[in-house]
Amino acid sequence: MDLGNPPELQITGSQTIEMWVKPLSLANRQSLFCKAYNGEGAITLEVDGKLSYYYGTGGDNPSETSMDTDTFQGILSDFGLLRDEWSHIAIVRDFHSRTLTWYIDGAFAGEKIITKDAATAGRENVFLAKGYADHFNGCIDEVRIWNRARSGYEINEDRHHRLVGRETGLVGYWRFDENTGATVYDQTDYANNGTISGATWQESDALIGNHPGVSRDSFSFDGRSIESGLTAVQYFQQEDAQIGNDQESKPMKTNARVMFAVATGGTDPNGATTTKKYIAALDFAVSREGKLTQVPDNLSLSWLNRTDIDGDSIEPIWYLFRPRLY
After folding, report:
1. Domains within the chain, CATH numbers bracketed
2. Pick from 288, 292, 302, 297: which is nearest to 323 by CA?
């Protein structure tokens, strides 16, 4: 996955990189994360299952013939990953304590004293599952990049939970929940979305669930711009029910729903450019636990027509997306 070279990911100071990985082969050295091993940092899966991390002051990925080993340093994890099994991995670069530290499945997996200066930012793009080593043969899920050093307690506390996306220091967060297409959406406000090539979607069975506290989802509309604040209203579906001794038919509240509405800009129903704003409406089911249905990050909506009391069509002003509750 290609994440480009946005400024938020050109991290030269303290840094934490986390992800869930499941290697399907250990036959060769494979890149898991690569910005620059002689720059902002790179993670490689070694043939024995151990993990190596390098960063440096050169700002690039030099070839073996041109590398200067005095400009970068690294750390190898104390133990490795198992083939065909999910593991949570985290590397912490802490310039306050001057340490590089590995964590695997929340457990301490090695530490080394930092001897180099801060990393040097370079022109290299950020890649997941590819880099200066071979492409990764396996599965990746729930990738998080921070511009601060996280503690072992923090890492272990939420490695099994999805994040909100606005946690302190979180500059990149990709859940890989799209299950289709070539785009993986960044759940932070930086919106550094990734582009997939040469990979296929698979259902993940990594041990990740919703956070027991606050959760946050974002979405956008395909081909539309947001032109106003979001409004919301909760309502209940009503169905006729036979009530009382007389079995009189009366409306009864059933399922709760939440409707969002927002003004959008773009083309008119005929595809022509216009300055008119059109309302996008999203009608969400609500679960028994009070949670809204999860939706894709990019929604493609349909035009709806409304009619007057005589049944004549009025200019369409609504988009509607109505996700079901699963």
Report:
1. 7-195 (2.60.120.200), 220-321 (no CATH)
2. 292
